[in-house]
Design goal:
CATH class: Alpha Beta
Number of domains: 1
Radius of gyration: 16 Å
Order of helices and strands: HEEEEEEEHHEEEEEH
Shape: globular
CATH architecture: Alpha-Beta Complex
Distance between the termini: 50 Å
Helix content: 10-25%
Largest sheet: 6 strands, mixed
Oligomer: single chain
CATH superfamily: tt1808, chain A
């Protein structure tokens, strides 16, 4: 499939277990390198120079030369794409304050949020007009990426993952 060559969505599979996170692979890294990008795991620190925040996203992608914080050579400052796996404890922060910080990164083109409760990808992409657009993809769907000129396929991201069965909520009658 055209457009999936730069980043293999299987590299964004969730690990099974109590704390899902983005899983890295040599294959994914090699594919990202083929389009001039490099994928980093959750061990990579990202610094937002405009705000001073240092954080560890679940995955980061840098296209082009890696740039580091002048005050901290262990922190990158130019991610092209950031990925967060949403959890009960971090979802509010990841969607709100953290995303406010991320939007201040000039190089950032895509912010991917991966649900751990259901097969759902949410991708905020920055357009040439500097406005952010939300695109969602559920089971059987894919979502385009601005940064890598490709798509993330939801089924491939969640391949082999057993998601919790959500209990039915009882709606109060009026």
């Amino acid at each position: 499939m055209r457009g999936v060559a730069c980043l293999d969505a299987r590299g964004l599979n969730l690990n099974q277990g109590r704390s899902p996170r983005v899983r890295g692979s040599r294959q994914r890294g090699a594919l990202a390198l083929s389009c001039g990008c490099r994928v980093y795991s959750s061990d990579a620190k990202v610094r937002i120079l405009a705000t001073g925040l240092a954080t560890y996203p679940d995955a980061s992608v840098v296209c082009g030369a890696l740039q580091v914080d002048p005050a901290d050579a262990l922190a990158m400052v130019n991610p092209t794409m950031l990925v967060e796996v949403l959890s009960d404890g971090t979802e509010r922060y990841d969607r709100g304050e953290k995303f406010e910080h991320y939007r201040r990164i000039e190089s950032l083109r895509d912010y991917v949020m991966v649900s751990q409760c259901k097969a759902l990808l949410e991708v905020y992409s920055r357009g040439d007009d500097n406005l952010w657009t939300l695109r969602e993809a559920g089971p059987g769907q894919s979502v385009p990426l601005t940064a890598l000129r490709g798509v993330l396929e939801t089924d491939r991201v969640y391949e082999g993952i057993e998601l919790p069965v959500a209990p039915l909520r009882v709606l109060a009658s009026r």
